[in-house]
Amino acid sequence: MSDESQSFLFVHRAVRGAWARCDALMHDVLQRHPYPAALQALLGDLMIACAMLSAHLKDGSTLTLQLRGSGPLHLAMAECSAAGHIRVYADYDADRLHPQLSFMELLAPAQMALTLEHEGQSYQGIVALHEQGLALSLEDYFLQSEQLPSCLLLAHRADRYAGLLLQQMPAADRDQADEDFRYARLLAQTCRDDELLELDSSSLLQRLYHEDDITLAPPQTLSFHCRCSRQRSLSALLSLGAADLSHLLMERHGRIEVDCELCRQRYHFSSLDLSEHLQAPDSLQ
Ligand SMILES: [Zn+2]
Predict the structure, then answer these.
(1) Which of 3, 19, 38, 145 is the most exposed place for a label (fewest CB within 10 A)?
(2) Ligand 1 geometric centre to CA of 34 (Å)
(3) d(Cα 85, Cα 87) in Å, to the nearest integer?
(4) CA of 213 relative to ligand 1 center, distance in Å
(5) How far apart are CA 188 and CA 197, in angstroms?
């Protein structure tokens, strides 16, 4: 049982990759928010894809994948930091969901946004979704936005989700790099779902690329961790301004609750907690 991601590099080819597998993480997500069965597979795949794409991030960076559509699923989001902290969220119309809906019926017409945050800066790229699913949508994204051919495999069974990602690296000899990537992708496409789900990273790479030298980075543990905090919730309340906040406190009989949509953590604030801010409007900013 593990929740891990791991990046790897072909020593003699212009290809890098990442692997991820989660056994307990989806269970943690569902305990906080029991998403309907019709959405669980997509959210799990999104989580694994995000974990693999984050395996190459610099320390302190965070990657967010968002699918936004006008079908019953309005928004599906997964976020993963370089430290392996993951959160997942969906906003949906429960009355219009049923388990037989295809990827495009859930979302269409839809866009995928990929946001990279690093040291206070953020960069976002957006593409239309590929009608055949998340993996091909991401392959499209990297080809269109970054001119990087990519190959993404995703599989799930019950609570276990797994994936393999290959990406061509920029190289002086583009023809050779193209050939390296074609080779790696061709072999990856021989990987069966049960191999992806059952084998650990080194056994899987040995099975697919036994003739190649591959360097595996140390594994990264993945865990559910939300970026919300009492301080952030307080800042959100203070942004209402002293007058509105006083009014809200009165309406709620001196006790305000702030819920985090993403992890369902609830933060309580009493009149006493907020009193110093109400009496000193200058401190509101
Ligand atoms: Zn939260």
Answers:
(1) 145
(2) 15
(3) 7
(4) 41
(5) 14
DSSP 16-53: EEEEEEESSHHHHHHHHS---HHHHHHHHHHHHHHHHH
> CA 185 to CA 50: how far, in whole Å?
20
Distance 137 CA to ligand 1 centre (A): 28
State the distance from the centre of ligand 1 to the C-alpha of 108, rounded, in angstroms. 28
- The identity of residue 282, as a single letter, is D
Q: How far is CA 118 from CA 32, 35, 51, 112, 232, in A?
A: 28, 30, 16, 20, 19
SS3 205: helix
User: What is the model's pTM?
Assistant: 0.89
What is the whole-number distance in angstroms between the Cα of residue 266 and the centre of ligand 1?
8
Q: What are phi and psi of 57, to 5 degrees?
A: -70, 150
Residue 175: how many other CB atoms lie within 10 Å: 8
Between CA 268 and CA 259 the distance in angstroms is 9
Name the β-bridge partners of 168. 15
Q: What is the pLDDT along the chain (285 residues), one digit of tens a residue?
A: 689 999 999 999 999 999 999 999 999 999 999 999 999 999 999 999 999 999 999 999 999 999 999 999 999 999 999 999 999 999 999 999 988 899 989 998 889 999 999 999 999 999 999 989 999 999 999 999 888 899 999 999 988 999 999 999 999 999 999 999 999 999 999 999 999 999 999 999 999 999 999 999 999 999 999 989 999 999 999 998 888 888 898 999 999 999 998 888 999 999 888 887 775 444 444
Cα of 102 vs centre of ligand 1, distance in Å, is: 29
Residue 37 Cα, ligand 1 centroid: separation in angstroms?
22
Q: What's the confidence (pLDDT) of residue 256? A: 93
